[in-house]
Amino acid sequence: MKKLYRSETNSMLAGVCGGLGDYFGVDATLIRLGWVLISLMGPGLIAYIIAAIIVPKESEVI
């Protein structure tokens, strides 16, 4: 069973993109690039901050 978490090993800011990359089996760099594009077009920064608050750290899940 997959669990969504903030990555502690593959993180730049809060580890949200690294955790999403692990969850979906995609390179975290692609997730980060997509997040930058979303941030430029809309409320991506707010969504990132909310995800950083809501999604638990890797050590809390595993």
UniProtKB/TrEMBL annotation:
Keyword Transmembrane: yes
Pfam families per UniProt: PspC
Topology in the lipid bilayer: Single-pass membrane protein
GO cellular component: plasma membrane
Transmembrane segments: 33-55
Main location: membrane
The organism's place on the tree of life at top rank: Bacteria
Cell location: Cell membrane
InterPro entries registered for this protein in UniProt: Phageshock_PspC_N (IPR007168), PspC (IPR052027)
Keywords: Cell membrane, Membrane, Transmembrane, Transmembrane helix
Keyword Flavoprotein tagged: no
Coiled-coil features, chain-numbered ranges: none
Stated name of the protein: PspC domain-containing protein
